[in-house]
Specification:
Elements (H helix, E strand, L loop, with lengths): L1 H26 L5 H26 L13
């Protein structure tokens, strides 16, 4: 479940990045839409950090790599 949330948040961050890029070139610095897109992206990144921290805390995510796992 948390993996799906992480993927959705990553996709949403990429979408807001693209939207901010489009706003930047369309408005040529005359509106605040780029700043709103940046604020949205920062908020989504903060939520992503919280979800990953929660996953690590609950044990749903772990820090071990499959190629270094102990038998």
């Amino acid at each position: 479940m948390l993996q799906t949330i992480v993927i959705v948040l990553l996709v949403a961050i990429l979408i807001t990045l693209a939207v901010g890029f489009v706003f930047f070139y369309q408005d040529k610095g005359r509106s605040k839409r780029v700043m709103y897109a940046l604020g949205t992206r920062v908020t989504l990144a903060f939520i992503l950090i919280l979800v990953v921290a929660y996953g690590l805390y609950t044990g749903e995510f772990n820090l071990s790599t499959p190629w270094n796992a102990q038998p």
